[in-house]
Specification:
It is a single chain. This protein has a single domain, classed as Hypothetical Protein Ychn, Chain: A (3-Layer(aba) Sandwich). It is 30% helix and 20% strand. The protein is built from four helices and five strands; from the N terminus they run βαβαβαβαβ. It has a five-stranded parallel beta sheet with strand order 4-3-2-1-5, covered by helices on one side. Helix 1 packs parallel to helix 2. The radius of gyration is 14 Å and the shape is globular.
Length: 125
């Protein structure tokens, strides 16, 4: 049985924050079950790793818990967050703009190699 879960957040749009809770909760749950979990934020979801973005979003209007709180909680459980390097240019960011919970970068070729060579499962949102 695979012990690694890759959560690919690519269509989870920060403009629709109600979409953001599920992948982060699933990642945290898998980590709590002792799976190795990596969340790759690509496409529009890449904005979530920019400082200040997730802090200003809540999954439910009026909630005190921000999307950044979900990210921090998942990270505390061992979830590793990676940014797509192409997003830096796409969203006019630098590595310094990323939240400290971001472990680094995982681009398209590295992601494909990881998926094809390793024994892992993938959830895509």
């Amino acid at each position: 049985m695979s012990r690694t879960l890759i959560v690919l957040m690519v269509n989870s749009d920060p403009r629709n924050p109600e979409e953001l809770g599920t992948p982060l909760v699933h990642a945290a749950a898998a980590a709590a079950l002792d799976y190795e979990v990596e969340v790759i934020c690509a496409g529009t979801a890449g904005k979530l790793l920019k400082k200040g973005v997730a802090e200003g979003l809540t999954v439910k209007p009026g909630s005190q818990k921000t999307v950044y709180d979900f990210i921090r909680e998942a990270r505390q459980l061992g979830v590793k967050f990676y940014a797509c390097p192409a997003n830096l240019a796409l969203f006019d960011m630098t590595a310094a703009d990323l939240v400290p919970e971001c472990e680094g970068f995982l681009g398209a070729a590295a992601l494909m190699a990881r998926i094809m060579e390793d024994d892992c499962r993938i959830l895509s949102y």
